[in-house]
TrEMBL record:
Pfam name, any one: FtsX
Protein name, entry field: FtsX-like permease family protein
Keyword tRNA processing tagged: no
Record GO cellular component, one term: plasma membrane
Alphabetic keyword roster: Cell membrane, Membrane, Transmembrane, Transmembrane helix
Record lineage: Bacteria, Pseudomonadati, Planctomycetota, Planctomycetia, Isosphaerales
Compartment(s) where it occurs, according to its Swiss-Prot or TrEMBL record: Cell membrane
Residue ranges of the TM segments: 29-49, 390-413, 434-460, 480-504
Primary location group: membrane
Membrane topology: Multi-pass membrane protein
InterPro entries: ABC3_permease_C
C-alpha cells in the first residue's frame, strides 16, 4: 500500500488542507467541538466523581471512629484478656500486616453512680464509659469552649462530658460549663469530679461521658466518709504548734482531745506545721472523715476562745490520706473496640471477629454494636461505584451519539466531495490512497478534539476542585483525579473511532468511477 511510503506525509498535508479549507472549515470546527465536548465531559465528570469519593473516604479514614467496630454486652464482662488476645491473634493471622491499629477494651461505669443536678435538688444517672490512654476515641470529638484537646485520659483526674450529660443535669448549654460535677455513690456524701471538657457532639455507644480507666477505678474505691485511725490537719499557726509541743493547750482543747480518745503530735513539713491526730483504740471505732472535720472545727473554736490566732487552713485535709491509692482498673471488660487501619478492612474484620466470638459465647452477642458505621461506609462505597458506572455508561452513550453525528456529517460532506474524489482518481490517486486520506482526516479530527477536550476538562476540573475546597488545601489536591494512562487509552479509542467513521462515511464516494464523479461537477 503506497501511502505507508513517502506519500504518507503528503496525504497528511492534503488531509489537513482539505479539512481546513474555507468551504469545510465550519464543518471541521463543529466536529472537533463535538469530540472535545464528549472528551471534556468524560474527563470532568469522572475526575470530579473520583475526587469527591477520595476526599470523603479520606475524611472517613482520618476519623478513628469510622474505622472502629465495638463488641460486647453490658450485662457481663465477656471481654476477658484471653478472649481479646484470641481475637487479636485471629485478625493478625488473616489480615495483612498493619491492617489492625489496635484493640481497646472498655467498660461502662457502675449503675450506682449518681450525679447531682445543677440546683442540687435531685440526681440523675448518666452513663459513662472508660477509656485507655492509647485509645484515640476522643480524637473524633473536639471539645468546645476553646479548651485544649484531651486526646488521652491517663493520669488526668476528671471526665469529658457530652452536651447531653450537661443538659441532663440541668446546666444551660449556652453558659460556660462548671469546673466540676458532684458524684454520689450509694446515697452517701458527694465527691467533686473535675470536668476536663465538653465535646461538641454526642459520644458514641450511648455514652454520656468518658473517664480514664485509672480515675474510674479510683472513683469506685473512694469512700466519701471513710473511717480514719490517723489524720494530719491542714497548716496551723506557730503558736498552735508551740502549745502542742509544750503541752500548754487550753483546758477545753485538752478535754475535747481526751474525750475523743485522740493523741496529738506536731509535724513540721515544707507547707508549715501540722497537727497529727491519732485515734487511741480499735480502728473500727475511729471517726469518719466528716466527724474528723467537725472535730477540727470544734478545736479551732476552742483555740480562738482561748485567745489563739485563727487557723483558716486547719480543715484542708490532703486527699491522699483518705483516697485509696490501691485503685486498680478492671482486668475483664464489657466491651472491646477493634480499630482498623483502613475502612476497607471493616467487612473482613467483622467476619473474623464474629467467627471467633461465636466459638466461645452465644452468637447473638457477637454482633458489632456500631454496625451502622460499617454499613454506612460500605453503602457509601457502593453508591460511589454505582455513580461511576452511570457516568461511564452516560459517557459511552454521548460518545456513541457524537460518533453517529460525526458519521452523518461526514456522509453529507462525502456527497459534496464525490467530484473531488473523481478528479483525484483521474490524476492517478488509487482507492487505497483515498481510503488512507479518509482515515487520516478522521485521525486529525479525533486528535484535535481529544487534545482540546482533555485540556478543557482537566483545567475546569482543577479549577472546580480548588474553588469548592478552597478552605481545605489538602482536599483541593484530591478533589479532581485524572489518570494519564486512562486518558491515553480513551484518546486512542476516540481517534480510532474517528478514523473508522470517516473511512466508513467516504467508502461509497471513493468507489464511484471517475467518469461518474466528474459528471457531478
Amino acid at each position: 500500500m503506497r501511502p505507508s511510503g513517502p506519500r504518507l506525509p503528503y496525504l497528511a498535508r492534503f488531509a489537513a488542507c482539505d479539512l481546513f479549507e474555507r468551504t469545510s472549515l465550519r464543518i471541521t470546527v463543529a466536529v472537533i467541538t463535538t469530540i472535545a465536548a464528549v472528551v471534556a465531559f468524560s474527563v470532568l465528570a469522572r475526575g470530579l466523581a473520583l475526587g469527591a469519593h477520595r476526599v470523603n473516604v479520606q475524611r472517613l479514614q482520618d476519623d478513628p471512629l469510622n474505622r472502629s467496630l465495638w463488641y460486647g454486652v453490658r450485662s457481663s464482662r465477656l471481654m476477658t484478656g484471653g478472649r481479646i488476645a484470641e481475637i487479636d491473634e485471629a485478625l493478625r493471622a488473616a489480615l495483612p500486616a498493619g491492617a489492625i491499629e489496635g484493640l481497646y477494651p472498655y467498660s461502662k461505669t457502675p449503675d450506682d453512680w449518681e450525679w447531682l443536678t445543677a440546683d442540687g435538688t435531685s440526681i440523675e444517672r448518666p452513663v459513662g464509659r472508660t477509656i485507655r490512654p492509647e485509645d484515640r476515641l476522643l480524637e473524633s470529638f473536639p471539645l468546645r469552649e476553646g479548651r485544649p484537646p484531651i486526646l488521652r485520659l491517663d493520669d488526668d483526674e476528671g471526665i469529658v462530658a457530652s452536651p447531653k450529660m450537661l443538659e441532663l443535669l440541668g446546666y444551660d448549654p449556652e453558659s460556660p460549663p462548671p469546673e466540676s460535677l458532684s458524684l454520689r455513690r450509694g446515697r452517701r456524701d458527694t465527691v467533686p469530679v473535675p470536668l476536663l471538657g465538653v465535646t461538641e457532639k454526642p459520644l458514641p455507644d450511648y455514652a454520656d461521658f468518658v473517664v480514664g480507666e485509672r480515675y474510674e477505678a479510683k472513683l469506685r474505691q473512694i469512700d466519701p466518709d471513710p473511717v480514719l485511725g490517723q489524720l494530719r490537719s491542714g497548716p496551723v499557726p506557730p503558736d498552735w504548734a508551740a502549745a502542742a509541743r509544750e503541752g500548754s493547750l487550753p483546758p477545753n482543747v485538752s478535754e475535747t482531745l481526751d474525750k475523743a480518745r485522740l493523741f496529738l503530735e506536731v509535724e513540721d513539713l515544707s507547707s508549715g506545721s501540722h497537727w497529727n491526730l491519732t485515734f487511741i483504740g480499735d480502728v473500727s471505732e475511729a471517726p469518719g472523715l466528716r466527724a474528723w472535720r467537725d472535730l477540727l472545727v470544734a478545736l479551732a473554736g476552742e483555740m480562738l476562745r482561748a485567745g489563739m490566732p485563727p487557723a483558716p487552713r486547719l480543715t484542708e485535709i490532703p486527699e491522699g490520706q483518705y483516697a485509696s491509692e490501691e485503685a486498680v482498673p478492671w482486668e475483664d471488660h464489657q466491651f472491646v473496640a477493634v480499630v482498623a487501619a483502613d475502612i476497607e478492612y471493616l467487612p473482613e474484620i467483622e467476619r473474623i471477629v464474629n467467627e471467633t466470638l461465636a466459638r466461645s459465647i452465644r452468637p447473638e452477642l457477637a454482633v458489632p454494636l456500631n454496625q451502622g458505621v460499617s454499613d454506612e461506609v460500605i453503602k457509601f462505597s457502593r453508591q460511589t461505584r454505582e455513580a461511576l458506572n452511570i457516568l461511564t455508561y452516560l459517557s459511552l452513550g454521548i460518545a456513541l451519539v457524537a460518533m453517529l453525528n460525526l458519521m452523518v456529517v461526514e456522509w453529507l460532506r462525502a456527497e459534496r466531495k464525490i467530484p473531488e474524489w473523481g478528479l483525484l482518481k483521474a490524476v492517478g490517486m488509487t482507492e487505497a490512497e483515498l481510503a488512507a486520506l479518509s482515515v487520516l482526516e478522521g485521525v486529525v479530527l479525533g486528535t484535535l478534539g481529544v487534545a482540546a477536550g482533555a485540556a478543557f476538562g482537566i483545567g475546569v476540573g482543577r479549577w472546580a476542585s480548588a474553588s469548592y475546597y478552597r478552605d481545605r488545601p489538602l482536599d483541593s489536591e484530591m478533589g479532581f483525579i485524572w489518570s494519564p494512562l486512562l486518558l491515553l487509552a480513551m484518546s486512542g479509542l476516540v481517534v480510532c473511532l474517528c478514523g473508522f467513521g470517516t473511512w466508513l462515511a467516504n467508502r461509497t464516494s471513493r468507489r464511484s468511477p471517475p467518469c461518474e464523479s466528474l459528471k457531478m461537477r
